Amino acid sequence: MTWLRALRETARSGLRVERTRLEPLVALRAAGGVAIVVALSLWLWSPPVAASSAFGAFAAGVATFQRSWRPRPVLALATGAGLAVSTFLGYLAGAHVVLFVVLLAVWAFAAGMAWALGPTTGMVAALTVAVMLVTVTLPTSVLSALQHAALVGVGALVQAALIVVFPIRRWGAQRDALADAFAAEADYARRLRHDPTAPFDPTPLMAARSAAVVTARQARRRPEELHGNRVLAERIRPVLASLADPTVGAAAEGPERDRAREVLAVTATVLDAVARAIRHGGAVRVPEEADVLLRSETPGADLTGAARRSAIRLVSLLSAAVERAEGSGPSDATGTAHLLRPSVGELLPTAVRTVRRQVRWDAPVFRHALRVSAVSAAGYLLGTALPLGHGYWAPLAAVMVMRPDFTQTYERGVARFTGSLVGVALATGITQAAHPGTYTFAALAVVSIGLMYLLMRSGYVVAQACVGAYVVFLLGMGGTQLEQTVRDRVLLTLLGGLLAMAAYAVFPAWETPRLRDRLAEWIEATAGYVAAVMEAHADPSRRRPGAVRRALLDLRAAGAAWDQAVARADAEPVRHRGLSRSAVRDADAALSAVGRVGLVMEAHQPAGDAAPVPEAAVFAAALRKATEAAAGEVRARRAPDWKALRTELGGWPSDPAGDRVVRRGAELLVDTLDELAEALRPRSAGQRHPADGAGRGAAPAGRPGGTPGRGQGEV
Q1: Whole domain around residue 557: which residue ranges?
Q2: Are residues 699 and 634 in the same domain?
Q3: Where are the transmembrane segments (predicted)?
Q4: Would residue 210 count as lying in a domain?
Q5: What would the pLDDT profile of 129-181 be if each residue is shown by its tens digit?
């Protein structure tokens, strides 16, 4: 992708308004927190103090809107603590330019490294840099630095208190995550009726798992319908795939296929009903035809063999899901313990190790931290040197648009930059035309931030316009910047945006050259999952509990990293290095099919007293060995060789002991791995790849918008 095309694509996506569900009550509560802090500060102290403390309430409110499963009051308090520390240090060093620039560079570097702990932590850390830049311009003395820092913390405390006193839709985020998982499986069941190898995006299941991680206190208070249902959703998914699969499930045509389609249709209806009940906390309303299936003693009528077993297992899981969604099922229905969130003391060593792993020259987060540090210091010095006044606008704009990767920096950066320009220009124009008083400034600031909270998940440009206006009105309330013109602020904001864009161009961390590493990791994780499933078939009486589950989680993590890498590489203005778009599409589809083989075999895991299949253990060992060599070949830009696996398969008896699923799964696995090798085999200069006919700009099947998808049956 060329630079011009990359800029055009990112600008188009960044300026697009996202139509998502608005939360007016939550926005009103957050804006009310800012209003309370501003009103009390104006009444008890002065406008500068009110402006300082309002930044704490504003940033704490922003933190509570981030996608995080931690309690919202905790997010607000943690944000307030970080803001208070940055404010205190900024006031102490603000009188000395050199000392402040050094402090700013170090603080910005630390904030950049915070992205290693997740986007929510990274966003909050960026806010602490922004507050440090803004608050040092307010008139105060060094002796009052601690007081101002405390007031910033009080703003966050007010937001946390409002969340506790006026709760809105308790456990709403967790309910939505679990409901989305069931809704995704309902859609999957409908698509399987028409396409037995339809793809499935595991993202909702991954989000539901993240939402299910709770503290011990939360586990005691969690609603009954949120207990255990996630594990049921996980177990339903492979059974759906197994029932629809024409190889080991229902026959491709005839009465058996018709019955399978009927069961899948009813399953989708039940799953939708469960999703609605979980999302809104009501009863599960199942239609009569679905209720008949759930109560039927012969749900597998007209089905035989593995398909019949899948139908019976599916109805059992659906009945359990309905009972759990109504809170009437047994508390140990899933036989699993809570996913407990570690305490702060336990989490700190893990966080330190996570950050330390990113301290290397080629790590995207480390390079991002260096960029943020350099741009913050350079922007502040340039803004101070220019005869425009209040030069902190330049580094402020840069810090708030920078992200660890090119795609986010440009997509969100363009939107944030454009919105900030509009907001700053409009607010400055209102200020200079109307000359509002202190209380009018305060009211305008509260209205601006209320609109930002309301539209935060609707459109980046509009939300950032509100933020820009909020900053102007708030500082105007504090009695500063009234002499600065629209042109000055626009020029400084433009300077900050250009610095951010130039920093990534000069010191990039492209994802494109890492595609082969991500693919090799996905190959290893996929083969590890299939090997774990086959080992469970090899000796059912001695299989390790949780081995298949851990392998599946590793596979999902590797698959998500691959998807993210492909999406980022697709938007980067660099030429491919070793993997063309057509090779990415074909490799993606082949590996997804490999994962589907393991998924179908997982749905037919034998009971503990089932007959062992010793050939499966030998094949699983050969698969692990061949995969290790194949991953090295992929990293070395060579096609992997799976001949050893085909040789091993040739030594199997024609009718091994155990279920035919194992033998058939091994055959499909070898065939699919050969397709993967073909996709990665280098082409001669004049040879066209089979997928090249779609054109470079075409979107591959299974994923809209041109981002390579997972192909068939993603796990």
Answers
A1: 512-706
A2: yes
A3: 21-43, 98-117, 124-143, 149-168, 369-393, 413-431, 438-455, 461-478, 490-510
A4: no
A5: 988 887 655 555 677 778 878 888 888 999 999 999 998 888 888 888 999 99
Domain closes at, from 292, 319, 340: 340
For residue 688, the Cα-to-chain-centroid distance in whole angstroms is 36
Query: Would you say how long the chain is, in residues?
Result: 715
Q: 338: buried, middle or exposed (CB in 10 Å: 19+, 13-18, 0-12)?
A: middle
The partner residues of 339 in beta bridges, in order of sequence, read: 213
For the four alpha carbons of 433, 439, 444 and 449, in that order, the dihedral sign comes to: positive
Nearest to 115 by CA among 366, 412, 408, 350: 366
Query: Tell me, what DSSP letter sits at residue 340?
Result: E
Kindly state the greatest CA–CA separation across the chain.
89
Q: Which residues contact 180 (CB under 8 A, 6 or more apart)?
A: 204, 207, 208, 275
- pLDDT per residue over 166-223, tens digit each? 988 888 888 889 999 999 999 999 999 999 888 888 899 998 888 888 877 777 778 8
- Ramachandran class of 359: left when φ > 0, alpha when ψ lies in -120 to 50, beta otherwise: beta
Task: Evaluate whether residue 665 is within a structural domain.
Answer: yes
264 touches 193 (CB < 8 A): yes
Quick one: 547 and 478 in the same domain?
Answer: no
- Please check whether residues 251 and 318 belong to one and the same domain: yes
Question: Bridge partners of 214?
Answer: 340
Distances in whole angstroms, Cα of residue 678 to Cα of each of 353, 525, 559, 640, 641: 39, 20, 20, 9, 10
Query: For tokens 């057509």, what's the residue?
Result: 582
DSSP code per residue over 378-403 = HHHHHHHHSTTS-TTHHHHHHHHH--
Pair 456, 559 in one domain: no
CA angle 110, 116, 117 (to 5 degrees): 100
Q: Quick one: angle between helices 3-15 and 460-477, nearest 10?
A: 70
Count of alpha carbons within 13 angstroms of residue 11, beta-carbon side: 8
Give the residue from 15, 17, 29 showing the smallest Cα distance to 454.
29
Indicate whether 377 and 458 sit together in one domain: yes
* The total number of structural domains that make up the chain: 3
Are 164 and 22 in the same domain?
Answer: yes
Beta bridge partners of 340: 214
Nearest-angstrom CA–CA distance, 22 and 222 = 25
Residue 195 lies in a domain: no
Helical (H) or strand (E) element with 489: helix 486-506
Residues 533 and 478 in one domain: no
